[in-house]
Amino acid sequence: MDYGNYALRRNPFPHHGSFPLGDENEEIYALLLIGREKLKEKLDSKLRNLREGESSSLVLILGDYGSGKTHCLKYLEYRSRQKYSNIIPLYIKTIPGIGIRYLLQAVIKSVEYALGREYLIDLARSYLSSEQKIKCSPDIRNFLNAIATGKALVALRWLMGYKLNYEERKELEIIADMDEALARESLSVLFKLLWRINGIKLLLLVDEAEEILKYDKGQIYNFYAGLRDLIDNVSDGMMMILAATPAIVYEEEKGIAVVNPALMSRISNNNIIELSPMDRDNTIKLILSYLKAFRVRKTKRFAGSYPFESNSLKLIAKLSEGAPRKALILSGLLLREGIAHRKSVIDEDFARKIMNIRREVIEEILMRPPVAVPQPTRPTKSPEKRRREAIELKVIKILENCGGSETRYKLYLKAGKSLKKDEFYKILESLAENGKIKLIRRSRGYRINLVV
Fold first, then answer.
1. What is the pLDDT of residues 245-301, one digit of tens each?
2. Rounded distance, CA 269 to CA 278, Å?
3. Rounded to an integer, what is the distance from CA 151 to the centroid of its chain?
4. Is pLDDT above 70 for 52?
5. Are 281 and 37 in contact, with CB atoms under 8 Å apart?
6. Collapsing DSSP states into helix, strand and coil, what is residue 87?
7. Residues 303, 288: Cα–Cα separation, whole Å
């Protein structure tokens, strides 16, 4: 369709309302985070914190489908490229499986795509010729030697988790296949090399993180435990931002708060960014910004909201219920219909007429978001459940501070004195059943070990 009659070089509104990944105008779209100034301030502050070394390693962006999570990640990607030469943003559409190995695969692919394989080779060579010393296992050290000495293809196959034959393994002098522990170490070493050798910090932007919830609870716990260990081992040099529906935190069976309180304890409230619905005025402001970005002629007529009249914009804002994706879909639909019907303006009457004719499409837009994982309402917890979870979290923290082990009685004195002993011991049994601790029988009682 030719949108020249509306002084637009294209339909500014993505057809499905989702962020147009891979579009030739991706950067323009990314920076159109309009009508959400407080949100932009929060995102910009995360970039400043990363640059200045004051950041948490893990940040969550939570929002329902269509609330703008991908847009936030892409804003961070292009904003960091604009402002900070020492930050390399890597957008990861989704982690391809459950486990740190799959996160490693996604990171290495993104680094190769963004910087090229030669960058990794030069990084290894620079490290080996420097006086920097980073503690690592023999297999990781041999990998670095291999990638720096012309064996990059085979070395990277090992790093990506492919099985090597005997000759390939012998060539690299590598003993073990890639596993979760080696994957954590590999990522940790990569972050440290980039920071200590090249002065570069990685910004990992992971989308659709709620896909984790489709795996079983044990797999999810292991992934979160690995993520916790990785974060603890990298105090600076990187930041990971996960965008997901609220289910990733609040889901009753598999949410982070339930499955791995230790990981949740490392995410402060300041590092949980929740996307709230946009009000009417800001929804209209968003639509106007898209029109302005793709306007080709700016005259008195071809400016502002043209071809939309104010009442049609108010109707769109009302029907979209504060969801940016819905607002963009409805705007794009009305713009296409305006061209098809040769309308000089899109007023409220025309908008209502089209919405009546295209009722099924409109209802699908407004009522049926593309749900990949059920969106739970946040459970209302009883005071008893909140108290129990607080004690569980306290137990985990005490064990971490004690080197991972403590007697049951001392744990009771430190964490459970507000309860009867039997109640506290039942909480410990529940933690053991969920695989978070181990109860080990000793001659005079029990010793509690934290499961790593």
1. 999 998 889 999 899 998 998 888 889 999 999 999 999 999 999 999 999 876 667
2. 21
3. 33
4. yes
5. no
6. strand
7. 9
> CB pairs under 8 A, 24+ apart, for 41-44?
42/273, 43/72, 43/75, 43/76, 43/79, 43/273, 44/79
Q: What is the pLDDT of residues 72-85, one digit of tens each?
A: 999 999 999 999 99
Mapping DSSP to helix (H, G, I), strand (E, B) and coil, where does residue 416 land?
coil
User: How many separate helices (H) and strands (E) can be counted in the chain?
Assistant: 21, 8
Q: What is the per-residue burial (b if ≥16 Cβ within 10 Å, else e) of 229-253? A: bbbeebeebbbbbbbbbbbbbbbee
Secondary structure class of 398 (helix, strand, coil): helix
Instruction: Dump strand ranges (E) for 245-324.
Output: 272-274
What one-letter code names the amino acid at 57? S
pTM of the model: 0.78
Both tokens assigned to 288: 């106007």
Coil, helix or strand for 206?
A: strand
CA 67/CA 334 separation, integer angstroms: 21
For residues 264 and 275, what is the distance between their CA atoms, to the nearest angstrom? 19
Contact criterion met (CB below 8 Å) for 263 and 60: no
d(CA 19, CA 76): 14
Closest to 142 in 3D by CA, of 155, 131, 130, 132 = 155
**DSSP character at residue 5:** G
What are the residues whose beta carbons fall under 8 Å from the beta carbon of 192, sequence distance 6 or more?
Answer: 134, 234, 237
CA angle 273, 277, 282 (to 5 degrees): 110
Residues 261 and 275: their CA atoms lie apart, in Å, by 23
Q: CA-to-CA distance for 57 and 240, rounded, in angstroms?
A: 6
Task: At 184, list the tokens.
Answer: 């954590």
**CA atoms of 395 and 166, how far apart (whole Å):** 46
**Amino acid in the structure at residue 21:** L
**Which residues are bridge partners to 130 per DSSP?**
none
The whole-angstrom separation of Cα 448 and Cα 452 is 13
What is the token pair recorded at 179? 């596993």
Q: How far is CA 50 from CA 47, 119, 227, 381, in A?
A: 5, 22, 18, 35
Task: Give the DSSP letter of residue 276.
Answer: P
List 240's β-bridge partners, or say none: 58, 204
Whether 249 contacts 378, CB under 8 Å: no
